[in-house]
Amino acid sequence: MSIPSVPSPAGTQRSLTGKLKSSWTLDSERQVFCGPRGHEFDPSSELPQETLIAPVVPALLKRSRSSLSTAERELMLFIHVIFPAGIQPESQFENVKRWPCFQSVTINPLYELPSGGPGGF
Length: 121
What we know:
This protein is mainly beta. The protein is built from 2 helices and 9 strands, in the order ββββββαβαββ. The chain has one domain.
């Protein structure tokens, strides 16, 4: 049985999620990745305008690293690359995958809601 779905609203922003290599961090204010030995990687010239780079759990950036659990430190490695409406993450995947800061990159799914018809919500 297939459940009919409602497409995502126009203007929905799509994203990729990258997992940082352990020696890298994100300076979310400057939208720059900071690596070993003071190396910085600024991806702005490689992305569409208005792309946002943000940690998956921003609240963890406000806490001292020494106060975080092992699981929280692991969560700090995950970064969203959020594209402006109309940009498909598939078109940026190969480029982002080559960045020196990421050990892996995935395309986030586009979720749709049940339509509410018979058997729906």
